[in-house]
Amino acid sequence: MVQLEGVAYARYSSDRQQESSIVVQLAEIRRFCERHNIHLRHEYVDEAQTGTNANRKSFQEMIKDAEKREFRFVIVHRMDRWARNVDDARYYKKYLRKYGIKVVSTIEEFDETPEGEFFELMSMGMAELYSKKLARECRAGMLANAREAKVHGGVPLLGYRVQNKKYVIEEKEADIVRLIFNLFLQGYGYVEIRNYLYANGYRRADGRVFTAHFYDILRNRKYIGEYAYNVEAERDERGIRNKHKSKPESEIIRIPDGVPRIIDDDTFFRVQAIMDERKQRRKYFNPNGKYLFAGLMKCGCCDGSVCGGVRYNYKGLKVGRPHYQCNRRDRKCPTTPTNAEYLETYVYRLLSWCLFKKENSQKLIDLVRVSYIKTYENMQAEYNALLAKIDEKQAKIKENCLKETQEEMKSLRAYLAEENCAIRWEINELTRSAQLLNERISMYPEFKPKRIIKMAESYLDRIRMTSGKTSQVAYRELIHLITMDNNEIRITFNLQRLLDGIERIPATVIEVRNNIAHPNKHACQALEFCDLKVQI
Fold first, then answer.
1. I need a labelling partner for 377 at 20 to 30 A (CA). Which of 134, 239, 258, 393 fits?
2. What value, to the nearest 5°, has the Cα angle with vertex 534 and ends 532 and 536?
3. How far apart are the C-alpha atoms of 232 and 244, rounded to whole Å?
4. What pLDDT score was predicted for residue 274?
5. What is the pTM of this model?
6. What HEC string does 463-486 produce?
7. What is the percent of the chain with per-residue pLDDT over 90, rounded to a whole number?
């Protein structure tokens, strides 16, 4: 009798799956092969792999080996071991059929008649249904635990340990967390924080050294006592999850004071403001230190980013001149490059000869006061508008509830109930926004004229230093954005730095570009405070 060639495929989903474990599956497959005179060439095994998708290492290896046409059968213990997704199961069975390979179950017999295919499809559908129901029940249990602020497993967050399914503070690690936040506020970058921790002997609980990845630590609201679950967005069609994207607020479970607090609100939100400010910046500098404002500029014509570059304008010129130019210039952006030296010198003179000049102290205080008041009024108006929207939505819910009790048609009652559900979701979103804005308002800095003068003198000393890095950091703290087009250059300053605050208090100085771009006009410019065109 001719012996047929086949391979075995076995899979289990978790360590708790005993009745269909790998040992049992392979034993049944071997007995099946002996009864039917099939030579088992290879055994493909996927351990702790879900059957709801086909991204399984051994499964994909088997599909690839099928192209060699070295076997005629794939034997599985049950069809739900093959897949728990009807689309995947049918697709790969059809794919293997192109190479003359048939998928066979040891305990389920489906012939090739229309009735047999129908019952096989029903069997696969039941397997998918079982998987989805199980996932739903597990999800419900996890959500119930989340509402009690319980831990769902995994490695505890730095600074905590798990006790009775609750987070408790691990003091030794909590000190490291506080140190990371304080170092960041002092201006340390991620690499500098890592080097500091390493040099001072700080290690993780398992003895490993810290890497320069502190973004998730600095952004984690658990450190201010907020328990959050179901935050991360779903995987995309490729099965990839972006951890920096979150679900709508209505789907997230948040419990204030659900976790012991390690960081105070003032420290945490100061860190968030600094990170938000850096969010859209590219902190890359030319290795020769030519481009002081790299990452701080954008084009006023096309809204593209502005980067540093070298231009050779004259024949025979061997050394290029550094310029700032629009990144989209190759795409027909009309903004022409501007000389880096002229722009940087103008900003230096604007700060040292005008804004921070000792004789202009009172004018600087008045400028900060006007911007300070306007920013606060805008925040308060935005907060009041959010409260008004919440009241409007709540009134709409009451109106719908009244209509629902009076409505006789079942379909209209269901529509009103569904509309109320959507409105409640909007209220949750608005309430969350109002809470965050109220936190910002509560942390708005006090207006202290002496503080303004002291900080201005400190920044002036820093930008005058010969150390390139020191002056670069000072400029990047003071300047929020520089926008340039062919007519004017707009420099937006972070005035909150003079009050040691975190909420943005902007003021924009607008200058005609010719006064900066032409060296003759630039050298003779007086830069009087009263002549500046300032936009609050």
1. 393
2. 165
3. 7
4. 81
5. 0.51
6. HCCCCHHHHHHHHHHHEEEEEECC
7. 5
Only one residue has tokens 């004017």, namely 488
**Residue 448 phi, psi (nearest 5):** -125, 105
β-partners of residue 11 are 46
Q: Based on C-alpha coordinates, what's the Rg of the chain?
A: 33
Q: Report the relative pairing of strands 479-484 and 297-299 from DSSP bridges.
A: parallel
**DSSP class of 325:** E
Say how far apart CA 470 and CA 468 lie, in whole Å: 6
Q: What is the pLDDT of residues 119-161, one digit of tens each?
A: 777 777 777 777 777 777 777 777 777 777 788 777 788 888 8
Give residues with Cβ within 8 angstroms of 284, minimum separation 6: 294, 295
Q: Which amino acid is at 301?
A: C
Q: How many CA atoms lie within 13 A of 61 on its CB side?
A: 11
Distance CA 327, CA 337 (A): 10
- The pLDDT of residue 426: 82
* Start-to-end CA span in the chain (Å): 93
Most confidently modeled range among 151-155, 319-323, 423-427? 423-427
Which tokens is 4 given? 């047929």
Closest CA to 516 of 471, 473, 484: 484
Burial class (CB in 10 A: 0-12, 13-18, 19+), 137: exposed
494: three-class secondary structure by DSSP: strand
Q: What's the token pair of residue 390?
A: 């919440």
